[in-house]
Specification:
Elements: H1 3-34, E1 42-43, E2 46-47, H2 59-88, H3 93-114, H4 119-126, H5 134-141, E3 143-148, E4 160-167, E5 170-177, H6 183-189, H7 196-211, E6 216-222, H8 229-233, H9 236-247, E7 254-263, H10 264-268, E8 275-279, E9 283-285, H11 289-296, H12 303-310, H13 314-319, E10 325-327, H14 338-356, H15 361-373
Parallel strand pairs: 5-6, 6-7, 7-8, 7-9, 8-10
Antiparallel strand pairs: 1-2, 3-4, 4-5
Helix pairs in contact: 1-2, 2-3, 5-14, 7-9, 11-12
Length: 380
């Protein structure tokens, strides 16, 4: 069997997987239609576990998850074959046309896959180690960046980057989470989990921006605030609470962009803004699905069910009016192309700053208060 015949056989198997997945979804819908409604009840005192949520471990759900994994592996294998064929094939017009047709078909499969992702799959993409971080956006979107270090009280927290720069020729203040690419960087950056000194550093930078009337751009990508003993001893909760209060009072435009994970109070501590944007495959949640599953069902393996219930995706949050806009990502996700992601985000930031520049300082503070005051009224 030739290389091209093997490649066509892979495409045939990929189509068979797609048909199996559609059949599994159809059977699951039929099963849900005949069964009693299963959901997490919401009461005034909060959430409680439902004894009927064991369907997360049912064979039907396991089959759907396995099909998703097989599908992703099939797409990855097809992409590798395309690259190998392009290297091995002679550069003739016929081969070029055939490769172009195969690339189009693989691209269509990828588009179909990434436009039908569930909350758990989006969470995995949001955590992808190659997603663009704050230093990538600084490099691609801003000029003359000058970093600000330290909280003038204890230390410099590398999990948060702060500094002044120019955006389209205008001075701005940048605050952003930074996770790190390799193990060494992640340890230095503490995996993007800020400590009290990080939140105090960010507030110092934002107050400096308010003093000189500079808008603030915040990039959020953190699993949450650091929960270690040292952070608690230095006042982690107080630092977060103080940031929430002071950010709500800053008389300058604040634009927030959730670029990956927006986790818990660690994210909210730098995310009180006039405009809240989210990249298409990012998430924003009061708790991680794993943490929620551990609390609700004493079983972290039900994280996928928790992700569905928490409504953590950009689409869900926009529907609940907790964010303002969704920023599209390049085909396959932001981790595939940092430059394209920056190009897509640029006009959203520019438009948001232009709109907010029309407000007086007093109007900015008032509308920010009203914005957060009215969140969650759909529960009333």
């Amino acid at each position: 069997m030739t290389k091209r015949e093997r490649f066509r056989e892979r495409i045939r198997r990929r189509r068979a997987l797609k048909a199996e997945r559609q059949e599994a979804k159809r059977k699951e819908k039929e099963r849900e239609g005949t069964a009693a409604t299963r959901e997490i009840p919401i009461r005034k005192e909060g959430l409680r576990p439902s004894a009927t949520l064991d369907e997360a471990n049912s064979p039907m759900h396991s089959d759907a998850r396995n099909l998703e994994k097989q599908r992703q592996r099939a797409i990855d294998a097809l992409e590798r074959d395309v690259e190998e064929l392009s290297r091995l094939s002679a550069p003739t017009d016929e081969n070029a046309a055939e490769l172009a047709r195969i690339r189009d078909e693989v691209g269509e499969l990828k588009r179909e896959f990434y436009t039908n992702l569930g909350p758990w799959q989006k969470l995995l993409i949001a955590r992808h180690p190659q997603r663009p971080y704050t230093d990538d956006f600084i490099r691609l979107l801003f000029e003359n960046f000058s970093e600000i270090h330290g909280d003038r009280g204890f230390a410099d927290d590398a999990a948060l980057i702060t500094g002044i720069a120019r955006f389209h020729g205008k001075p701005v203040m940048i605050v952003g989470s930074q996770k790190g690419r390799d193990t060494k960087q992640r340890l230095v950056r503490n995996f993007g989990q800020a400590k009290p000194e990080g939140y105090r550093k960010s507030l110092r930078a934002m107050q400096l921006a308010a003093k000189f009337r500079r808008p603030i751009l915040v990039f959020v990508d953190t699993p949450g605030a650091y929960p270690g003993v040292g952070a608690e001893e230095r006042g982690q909760a107080e630092a977060i609470a103080f940031n929430l209060r002071e950010m709500s009072r800053l008389p300058v435009p604040i634009v927030i962009t959730i670029t990956g994970e927006g986790g818990s109070g660690g994210a909210l501590a730098v995310a009180v803004g006039d405009r809240v944007l989210m990249l298409e495959n990012s998430i924003y949640s009061v708790i991680s699905p794993e943490g929620c599953a551990s609390i609700m069902w004493r079983d972290s393996s039900k994280a996928e069910t928790a992700a569905e219930a928490l409504k953590i995706t950009a689409k869900d949050l926009l529907a609940m009016k907790l964010i303002d806009e969704i920023v599209p990502e390049p085909e396959g996700g932001a981790h595939y192309d940092h430059e394209a992601t920056a190009r897509l985000l640029d006009p959203y930031l520019e438009r948001s700053l232009l709109d907010l520049s029309r407000w007086t300082p007093e109007q900015l503070v008032e509308q920010r208060y009203q914005k957060f005051r009215h969140m969650g009224q759909f529960f009333a």
